[in-house]
Amino acid sequence: MAVCIAVIAKENYPLYIRSLPTQNELKFHYTVHTSLDVVEEKISAVGKSVGDQRELYLGLLYPTEDYKVYGYVTNSKVKFVIVVDSSNTSLRDNEIRSMFRKLHNSFTDVMCNPFHNPGDTIQSKTFDGIVSGMMVPPG
Amino acid sequence: MADESLFDFLHMEIVSHIYKEQQSGKEEMDNKDRAVCVSVLESMGFRVGQGLIERLTRDSPSFKDELDVMKFVCKDFWTKVFRRQVDNLRTNHQGTYVLQDNTFSLLTQLSNGKQYLDQAPKYLAFSCGIVRGALSNLGLDSVVTAEVSVMPSCKFQVVVQKL
């Protein structure tokens, strides 16, 4: 279960960022911002290895003392960042991958919506619903 | 197989609607009006291309370089959108690509002779927009133009803008 989910555009500004309301939201914004550097590093690093099939899932970006940050980049250079609680060790790689898949599917639907302009913040209620389903329900 | 004609008809109607709107009240269309129509069609195609590419590249791995992107556009993208592959892709390796399609699906319904040759570009504007939108979402800013010499074959010229 995620603690914070963010969608970052190609130009590195946030299209959608949502964290648990009970926590210090600004801290999550900073965490997501710093994780962008790691994402860039991974993207350019994979480019150097010739013949490697580049995957969209970037894996664990970096662990902090309380949280683990995972990244995923789409072919249109839109980045998804998920922050999960470190204490929740039962989350396996596969589950994180499936969360990213769901996010990507729902993001694709948002992009195909003719009322959405690419580059605007995401206002879709369906997308909100999917994200809420993935976040820890506030206790 | 009726699905294919659905888009063909819709596209024909879009083109004629835009031109009729622009012409309303005036006797003759001058070049400026024609340019407006073409750019309206092209920008519609641009938005459609962006959404399409998001859906089509969802599962495929990242592209290694520009040429890889162009090959994807010529094969998979063209197949999904125009139901065939591009016949010929030429490049000068400096950022200019020419995609040649010998039986472009949106032109097959127009007759082969010279009579409608000057009307053909109208029907290509939307497709130019689609290609431009697709490339822009994949990270390549470009200018796409199309030309027709013999129907229904047409050439799309893509010039990738370098920063």
UniProtKB/TrEMBL annotation, chain A:
The keyword Repeat does not apply. PANTHER family: TRAFFICKING PROTEIN PARTICLE COMPLEX SUBUNIT 2. GO terms for cellular component: perinuclear region of cytoplasm. InterPro entries: Longin-like_dom_sf (IPR011012), Sedlin (IPR006722), TRAPPC2L (IPR044760). Keywords: ER-Golgi transport, Transport. It comes from Gasterosteus aculeatus aculeatus. This is Trafficking protein particle complex subunit 2-like protein. Its main location: cytoplasm.
TrEMBL record, chain B:
Keywords: Endoplasmic reticulum, Golgi apparatus, Neurogenesis. GO terms for cellular component: cis-Golgi network; endoplasmic reticulum; trans-Golgi network; TRAPP complex. It holds the Pfam family TRAPP. Transmembrane segments: none annotated. InterPro entries: NO_sig/Golgi_transp_ligand-bd, TRAPP_component, TRAPPC6/Trs33. Component of a transport protein particle (TRAPP) complex that may function in specific stages of inter-organelle traffic. Specifically involved in the early development of neural circuitry, likely by controlling the frequency and amplitude of intracellular calcium transients implicated in the regulation of neuron differentiation and survival. Belongs to the TRAPP small subunits family. BET3 subfamily. This is Trafficking protein particle complex subunit 6B. It comes from Gasterosteus aculeatus aculeatus.
